[in-house]
């Protein structure tokens, strides 16, 4: 994973642990003070939210536990790989797209970050500029030409 992705994940975890979780705990305490818990909707909703938050916190902790930050200066070799910036052209409609190939935990298409586990990234791996690849996606088959990769 990139250093940027790691830092973002750490910040999200801190936000959940230090801001969101205390808010939920306060909501539970407030709802508990209102009396009969068996019919207290606010209490049950706050408990569900606490369970959801704790689950997200555990997931992010696990991801960080096994994460490795990759030093891009030590990456060698040619072709598309993790943390490569790739410019491709869809030969079906002649549209150009630029993506950064990232770990699944960093992927965000709005930011142009494509998961290395996606079908498109899998097809592009180890290919070089000028290569044409065919990718099977849910919408059919795409023919893509790699314009550049770095």
Relevant terms:
single chain, about 150 residues, alpha+beta, five-stranded mixed sheet, about 20% strand, elongated
Explain this structure.
The structure is a single chain. The protein has 150 residues and is α+β, with helices and mostly antiparallel strands. 41% of the residues lie in helices and 22% in strands. The protein is built from three helices and five strands; from the N terminus they run ααβββαββ. The protein has helices at 3-32, 41-66, 119-124; strands at 85-90, 95-102, 113-115, 132-137, 140-149. The chain has a five-stranded mixed β-sheet. A hairpin with a 2-residue loop joins strand 4 (132-137) and strand 5. Helix 1 packs antiparallel against helix 2. The mean pLDDT is 87.
Task: Set out the fold topology.
Blueprint: H1 3-32, H2 41-66, E1 85-90, E2 95-102, E3 113-115, H3 119-124, E4 132-137, E5 140-149
Parallel strand pairs: 2-3
Antiparallel strand pairs: 1-2, 1-5, 4-5
């Amino acid at each position: 994973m990139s250093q940027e992705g790691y830092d973002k994940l750490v910040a999200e975890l801190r936000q959940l642990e230090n801001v969101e979780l205390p808010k939920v705990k306060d909501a539970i305490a407030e709802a508990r003070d209102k009396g009969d818990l068996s019919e207290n909707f606010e209490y049950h909703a706050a408990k569900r939210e606490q369970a959801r938050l704790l689950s997200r916190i555990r997931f992010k902790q696990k991801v960080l536990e096994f994460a490795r930050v990759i030093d891009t200066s030590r990456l060698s070799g040619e072709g598309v790989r993790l943390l490569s910036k790739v410019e491709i052209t869809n030969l079906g409609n002649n549209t150009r797209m630029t993506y950064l190939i990232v770990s699944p935990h960093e992927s965000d298409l709005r930011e142009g970050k494509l998961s290395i586990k996606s079908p498109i990234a899998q097809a592009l791996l180890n290919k070089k500029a000028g290569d044409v690849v065919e990718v099977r996606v849910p919408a059919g088959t795409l023919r893509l030409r790699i314009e550049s990769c770095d």
